[in-house]
Amino acid sequence: MAARVDGDRIRLAEAARFPNRAVPVHGRLHWDVLGLWSGILDGLRAVGEAVAVGVDSWAVDYGLLDADGRLMGNPVCYRDARNAPARDRLLAALDPADLFARTGIQHQPFNTVFQLAAEDPAALDRADRLLLIPDLIGYWLSGASACEATNASTTGLVDQGTGTWGHEWCSAAGFRADLLGAITPTGTVLGPVLPEVAAATGLGPSTAYIATASHDTAAAVAAVPYEGDRAAYISCGTWSLVGVERNAPITSPEALAAGFTNERSADGAIRFLRNVAGLWLLSESVDTWRRQGLDVDLGDLLAGAGRCERLRSVVDPDDVRFADPGDMPGRVRAYCAETGQPVPETPAAVAACVLDSLALAHRRALDDLEALTGEAVETVHIVGGGANNALLCQLTADATGRTVLAGPDEATALGNALVQAQALGLIAAGPDARRAAARASARPRRFEPRGPQDPWVRAAARLPSAAVA
Ligand code: LRH
C-alpha cells in the first residue's frame, strides 16, 4: 500500500497485492516467506519512490537466523499442530496464572513461547537470532534487526512490569534469551533501506525503514476513527479481535478464564481483547468449495446468505475443530448435526450459519468485555476487511443491539502509515493527533440494530458461554 500524507489526512492507494497461504510440507505447515518477500519487492517497485517504508503482519510467528544472518528454515505457521502439546507441557511446568499476570497474554497454543517449546533443540542451539515476521522482512529491507514492541508483546515472553523479555520463560521453553534482541519502541526510524533493495526496487537510497506498529492488529487499532467514549473495536479479517484500549492490563483469573489478552498498543497502552475466529471460517469454506470445483462468487454467496432464514443453525466459531485449514463446510455441518440443529446444505446456508455465528460470537465477546472492564460499550467500530462485509456488520449491530461503524477496511495499512507519519513528524505526536488523522482519513458506514434482541439472546444460549483457548 502506498500512503500519501495530504494535510491532516492519509490517502492510501493499493500498489500491489499477492496471496499469503500456509503450505503443508513434510508434516509441517509453513509460510512461503520468500514468496512474500518477492511480492513485497514487486510492490515496492510499483510504488517507485518513498520517504519511508514500514512492515506489519500477523503476530507470533518468527524466523531463526544463523550467525551469518541467514534464515535457517521456512517459518512455521502458527496453525501447525506442534503447538498444543508444547503449551500443555510448559503450562504444567510453570504457574499459568502467574504467567498470565506477568505477561498479560492469554495461553493461546500459538504464542511464540509455546512454539519455541516445540522447536527442534538443535535448531535453537545453532540459531543466533530470532526475528518475528515483520522484523525479519525489515531486516531484509534495511539490515537492522528490530524487535518491535507491539508485536513483541504477543509472544507471551514480555514481562509487562519491566517491559523486557522474561528470561526464565526463555529457559523454561528451552532457548537462550540472547536469541532475542532489545525491544524496539514503536515508531523508531531505523535507517535507510539496503543499497541492494534500493537498486532492486527503484526506492531512493535515503528511504527510511521505520519500525511501525508491526503487529497488524495494533496497526488496525491505531487507525480506529473513534467518535466518542464507550466504544469498542472489532478488527475483523481472518480473526475478529474484539476489544477496547485501556491504560492498564486486566490479569484477573476471570479475564484468563474468559480468554482475554492484553497486547501493547502503538502508544504503549493496552489492547484488551479476545481473539474470535473471524472470517477464516468463511474464507476456508470458499477455498474448499473452489477446490471441489464449485464456481463461488463472494458477492453472490453473501447475497444468498442474506436471504437465508436467520439463526437456523449456529456454531461456536472458537471451537478448536475450526482452527486448522481444511474442509470447513464439512466441519460446520458436522457441528450442526452433533448439536441437533438443521444441517446447512448449500454454500449460502453454510455462509449464513457462519455469519450469524460470528455476529453471536461478537455479542458474547462484547458482553464479556463489559463484565470484565465494568464499562458499557455503546458503539462498535468494525475495521479491516470485514468492514466491507455489509451483512456481517448489520448482523453484528442486530446481535449486539449496538450501533456499528464500519471502516476503514484497510485499517492495518492506515495505522501502519499513521505511525510512520508521526515518526517522521508529518503528523503531530500522540494518540489524540493520530485519532484525529484517522477520523479525517476514513468515512465509516453506520449500521443500526434492526428488530428485537430476543432471537439473538435465545441463539446465544445455544453456544458455550465463554470461549476458552
Ligand atoms: C491477526 C493476528 C492476531 C493474532 C493472530 C496470530 O492477523 O495478528 O492479532 O492473534 O493473527
TrEMBL record:
Name the keywords, alphabetized.
ATP-binding, Carbohydrate metabolism, Kinase, Nucleotide-binding, Rhamnose metabolism, Transferase, Xylose metabolism
Q: Which SUPFAM superfamilies match?
A: Actin-like ATPase domain
Identify the residues that the record assigns to the Carbohydrate kinase FGGY C-terminal domain, covering every copy: 232-423
* Ranges for domain Carbohydrate kinase FGGY N-terminal: 51-221
Q: Which Pfam families match?
A: FGGY_C, FGGY_N
Q: Which InterPro entries match?
A: ATPase_NBD, FGGY_C, FGGY_Carb_Kinase, FGGY_N, Rhamnulokinase
Task: Tell me yes or no: is Cell inner membrane among this UniProt entry's keywords.
Answer: no
Family membership noted in the UniProt record:
Belongs to the FGGY kinase family.
This chain's protein is named Rhamnulokinase
Q: Which organism is it from?
A: Glycomyces niveus
